[in-house]
Amino acid sequence: MAERDTTGAEGAGTEAPPDRKRMRSAARLGAVQALYQMEMTGATLKGAEVEFESRWLGAEIEGEQYHAADVKFFRRLLRAAVDRQAEIDQLTDAALVERWPLGRIDPTLRALFRAAGAELLALPTPPKVAINEFVEVAKAFFDAGKEARFVNGVLDHVARAAKPAAFPA
User: Which 3 state secondary structure label does DSSP give 61?
Assistant: First the structure.
């Protein structure tokens, strides 16, 4: 018997219900934050999962209520980003101009590219959905529209390299 996909990822041409969509968006934001924390503090994958699931996802912090997140989706993104980091970084580096290798990119953007790359490589989400979602995540971190346009361009390049069949000629 085939294993049923329980990630909640939308199939091509389908939309997730609004609550599920919001929870997946919150999971993406949490994955970016967790990857950033792991890079900055040296936290382990398990440590980041435990901290974010118990303290951040769906919590009220400093008077601001964070949306509840799809924890299973959060874990899949985070684990795929860690497991496939070398491949994701290579695809991202290929999308960047030579003067700006991944190591020179803002660490928040680096975490975002890794989470987005994980979704593009490891989950069945349509590339355009993943790109749009992570452009929105970029807007949560950066005021200027230039970062969102930059994220869109880099992720488009990564998506075309990772899932060329999704982009007919």
Answer: strand
